């Protein structure tokens, strides 16, 4: 006999935990309804007919009422049930419908069948509510749910549960699995379980493997442990209604969870990282940067004094800060929000989102300041104190890092990789990376410094300022780490131009046979030694360095000969109207923000140098793989991952011919090249990244407007550039590109303005454009397709507006 899932589950709980279920009686509808076979036949005919075609709602109600008019209960059964309840002295009862069709593996019907609580157990009430329960088996909500889920028919039948009321001090719902390995408890301080009715409630989420969390009381822990035992026995994640008083707890109902907990969702965002990894990034680069990101943030939090245990608890966050979708690199944005939450301070999310401009913010709000303070323990207080001390000392630490990095880099630069074995190359690379990563917490600290001081500056000091004033106030950097290469390039260009005139030639190649060549070559080599790490898309290992061909530098320099760098010198006058105490505060914040931006630009160059080392090492390994017939060409090494390369070298690989692997990936990535970069991507399913959708906020196609990031107005001819070329002539033109990373800025020295599909006020293109006083606009989706080279446009680097034509 089938009493329905609800009754069967209660019976199972009572069998496994006799003292955890309030006493109940389950009675089959077939035993209590007069002439049940004829009645249920009539009901099924009505239900199946209704589900097979569209029927007027009023007609459905009339038919249901007509059926119920003929439904009668067996007097002897009602009398017997009433007598039995009276004998047990149940003062109040609940009456629940237990249907055959509810709580299946694929469909729950949760909330569709009626329950009645706090009922006085009179004979009339029993008859009244049992009839209502039977009616709910084929009610309008049940039929509507069935039709919306594509049912052609449903099994009508089951039983009615009559149960003694349990009045707990607290009641709620337990979800034994949220899909992330956590149990979730939601409850209110009442015997009436209003959580299931959608009322606001207290929610606790704890890891299944850490039930001793301080958020869990002994009674809640007991409820969870009992729920997990039931889950294991029933073989599915459960939704359990429960209640407890001061002494004990009761389980009132258990059903399989209506959502598939095997499914999970992931959100990726390319707002900031697309500046460094535009378009397609090959497997070796991605595996290289994933390992770097996984280690630099633990290094930073160790610097803050985070315990080893806490670092281990957050391992999955640190190890998954990135995503790799269709050959493109993303931030796994939710994990970045989690990292931000680990930082002391109550406004970090707001400051973080201030750096994501112009893309819509998507984070969950942090707890308010009071709740954060109540959660802080002694270790957190110490970490907060150390954090703010490090911020104050950040400049000193940054100078020390720069000095140490320079010493390590020059030591590495002398290594002869070609003379080493593949394993020696790999060993040295790991050692170098480890030495640098131990110290890389300092650049991360500086990034946090940028985030915090820019956040304070933008959201508090400049909140009433117009866009132009805000952008101009970001200018005036002292170190100018990203401007120095442009200055020296222009100087080298002037030297080359003088040499051409002196040698009476216009061909750069002809200089090699003249007396001027030694001086020109020396100047180019000096530039390479000083700024050789600067190259377009410098953080993608597969991209050749400009320094690998001296004529790349000479061509770029010559094209920059007429450049006139109008370095920004205007001082910010916005603070002048502020009271003296606010003016002092504003100047301190602005000074720290600019200093942090300065150092970030310098650290970007250091990062490029690390990637240059990585490229050199892996190319040497690639040459050795070619000799061993593992790959066909040394550049094929970039189509493999670090793990695959190491497995081959260490003897962990199950194959030593990776030519087919490389060929297959090359074919696959060709299909990726035709797909545009989506700034925001979501995936959901049993394996979430397997099926992704573009969820980038839609752009207004009626206007050409981006985000202005460098003030100024210019009307000029456009040059649309898809791929960096050292010989490009962009002099006096508006450069239109997908992105501008530090290597691409070597073209900005010639340009009159720039439009970039990617970027924000703190991105490299914005910083450099402001410093050399050319207008810049970012965030125009599809700009390289929207504009054509040679057309005349006007751009406003403050408003982000573009006007075509005269």
Textual characterization of the structure:
By secondary structure, the chain is α+β, with helices and mostly antiparallel strands. Among the domains are: 160 residues, Dna Ligase, domain 1; 87 residues, D-amino Acid Aminotransferase, Chain A, domain 1 (2-Layer Sandwich), CATH 3.30.470; 76 residues, no CATH class; 98 residues, Phosphohistidine domain (Glucose Oxidase, domain 1), CATH 3.50.30. Helix content is 45%, strand content 14%. It is built from 27 helices and 21 strands. It has a 7-stranded mixed beta sheet with strand order 15-19-18-17-16-20-21. The protein has a 5-stranded antiparallel beta sheet with strand order 7-6-5-8-9. A 5-stranded antiparallel beta sheet has the order 11-12-10-13-14. β5 and β6 form a beta hairpin. α16 runs antiparallel to α18. The chain is elongated. About 2% of the residues have low confidence.
List keywords for this structure.
seven-stranded mixed β-sheet, 806 residues, five-stranded antiparallel β-sheet, 45% helix, D-amino Acid Aminotransferase, Chain A, domain 1, alpha+beta, Dna Ligase, domain 1
- Backbone structural class: alpha+beta
Given the structure, what is the number of helices? 27
Number of strands: 21
Q: What is the radius of gyration computed over CA atoms, rounded to a whole number of angstroms?
A: 35 Å
Whole-Å distance between the termini? Answer: 84 Å
Largest sheet composition: 7 strands, mixed
Strand content: 5-15%
Described by the principal axes of the CA atoms, the overall outline is: elongated
Unreliable spans are: 364-376
- Lateral arrangement of strands in the main beta sheet: 15-19-18-17-16-20-21
CATH topology of the domain at 5-164: Dna Ligase, domain 1
What is the CATH first-level class name of the domain at 5-164? Alpha Beta
- The helix content, as a percent range, equals 40-55%
CATH architecture of the domain at 5-164: 2-Layer Sandwich
Mean pLDDT: 86
């Amino acid at each position: 006999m089938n009493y329905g899932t609800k009754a069967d589950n209660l019976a199972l709980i009572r069998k496994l935990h006799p003292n955890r279920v309030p006493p109940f009686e389950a009675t089959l509808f077939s035993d209590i309804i007069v002439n049940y076979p004829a009645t249920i036949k009539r009901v099924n005919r009505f239900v199946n007919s209704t589900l097979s075609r569209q029927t007027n709602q009023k007609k459905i109600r009339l038919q249901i009422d007509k059926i119920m008019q003929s439904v009668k209960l067996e007097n002897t059964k009602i009398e017997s049930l009433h007598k039995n309840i009276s004998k047990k002295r149940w003062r109040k009862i609940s009456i629940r419908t237990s249907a055959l069709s509810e709580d299946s593996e694929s469909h729950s019907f949760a909330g569709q069948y009626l329950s009645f609580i706090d009922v006085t157990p009179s004979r009339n009430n029993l008859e009244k509510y049992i009839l209502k329960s039977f009616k709910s088996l084929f009610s309008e909500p049940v039929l509507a749910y069935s039709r919306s889920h594509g049912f052609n028919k449903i099994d009508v039948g089951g039983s009615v549960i009559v149960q003694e009321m349990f009045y707990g001090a607290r009641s709620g719902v337990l979800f034994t699995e949220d899909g992330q390995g956590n149990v979730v408890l939601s409850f209110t301080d009442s015997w009436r379980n209003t959580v299931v009715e959608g009322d606001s409630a207290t929610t606790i989420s704890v890891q299944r493997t850490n039930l001793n969390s301080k958020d869990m009381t002994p009674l809640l822990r007991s409820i969870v442990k009992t729920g997990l035992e039931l889950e294991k026995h029933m073989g599915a994640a459960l939704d359990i209604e429960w209640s407890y008083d001061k002494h004990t707890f009761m389980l009132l109902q258990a059903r399989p969870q209506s959502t598939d907990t095997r499914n999970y969702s992931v959100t990726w965002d390319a707002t900031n990282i697309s500046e460094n990894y535009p378009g397609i990034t090959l497997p070796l680069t991605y595996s290289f940067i994933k390992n770097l990101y996984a280690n630099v943030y633990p290094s930073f939090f160790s610097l803050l004094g985070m315990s080893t245990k806490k670092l281990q608890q957050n391992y999955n966050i640190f190890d998954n800060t990135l995503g790799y979708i269709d050959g493109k690199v993303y931030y796994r944005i939710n994990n970045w929000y989690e990292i931000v939450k680990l930082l002391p301070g109550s406004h970090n999310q707001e400051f973080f989102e201030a750096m994501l401009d112009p893309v819509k913010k998507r984070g969950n709000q942090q707890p308010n300041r009071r709740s954060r303070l109540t959660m802080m323990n002694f270790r957190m207080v110490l970490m907060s104190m150390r954090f703010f001390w490090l911020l104050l000392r950040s400049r000193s630490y940054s100078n020390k890092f720069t000095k140490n990095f320079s010493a390590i880099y020059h030591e590495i630069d002398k290594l002869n990789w070609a003379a080493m074995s593949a394993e020696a190359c790999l060993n040295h690379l790991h050692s170098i990376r480890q030495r640098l990563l131990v110290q890389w917490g300092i650049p991360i600290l500086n990034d946090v410094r940028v985030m915090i001081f820019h956040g304070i500056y933008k959201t508090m000091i400049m909140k009433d300022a117009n866009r132009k004033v805000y952008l101009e106030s970001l200018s005036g950097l002292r170190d100018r780490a990203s401007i120095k290469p442009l200055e020296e390039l222009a100087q080298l260009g002037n030297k080359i131009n003088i040499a051409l005139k002196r040698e009476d030639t216009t061909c750069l190649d002809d200089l090699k046979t003249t007396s001027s060549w030694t001086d020109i070559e020396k100047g180019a080599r000096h530039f390479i030694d000083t700024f050789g790490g600067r190259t377009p898309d410098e953080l993608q290992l597969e991209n050749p360095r400009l320094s690998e061909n001296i004529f790349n530098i000479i061509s770029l320099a010559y094209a920059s000969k007429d450049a006139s760098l109008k370095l920004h010198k205007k001082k910010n006058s916005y603070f002048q109207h502020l009271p003296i105490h606010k003016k002092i505060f504003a100047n301190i914040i602005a000074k720290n923000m600019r200093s942090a931006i300065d150092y970030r630009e310098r650290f970007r160059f250091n990062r490029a140098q690390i990637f240059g080392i990585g490229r050199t090492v892996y190319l040497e390994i690639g040459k050795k793989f070619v000799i061993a017939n593992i790959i066909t060409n040394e550049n094929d090494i970039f189509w493999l991952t670090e793990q695959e390369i190491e497995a081959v070298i260490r003897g962990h690989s199950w194959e030593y011919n990776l030519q087919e692997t490389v060929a297959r990936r090359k074919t696959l990535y060709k299909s990726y090249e035709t797909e545009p970069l989506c700034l925001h991507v979501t995936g959901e399913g049993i394996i979430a990244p397997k099926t992704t959708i573009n969820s980038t906020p839609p752009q207004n196609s009626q206007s050409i407007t981006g985000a202005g990031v460098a003030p100024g107005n210019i009307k000029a001819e456009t040059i649309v550039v898809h791929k960096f070329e050292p010989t490009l002539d962009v002099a006096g033109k508006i450069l239109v590109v997908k992105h501008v990373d530090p290597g691409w800025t070597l073209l900005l020295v010639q340009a009159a303005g720039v439009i970039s599909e990617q970027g924000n006020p703190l991105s490299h293109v914005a910083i450099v454009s402001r410093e050399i006083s050319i207008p810049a606009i970012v965030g125009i989706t599809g700009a390289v397709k929207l504009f054509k080279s040679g057309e005349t446009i006007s751009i406003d680097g403050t408003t982000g507006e573009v006007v075509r034509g005269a």
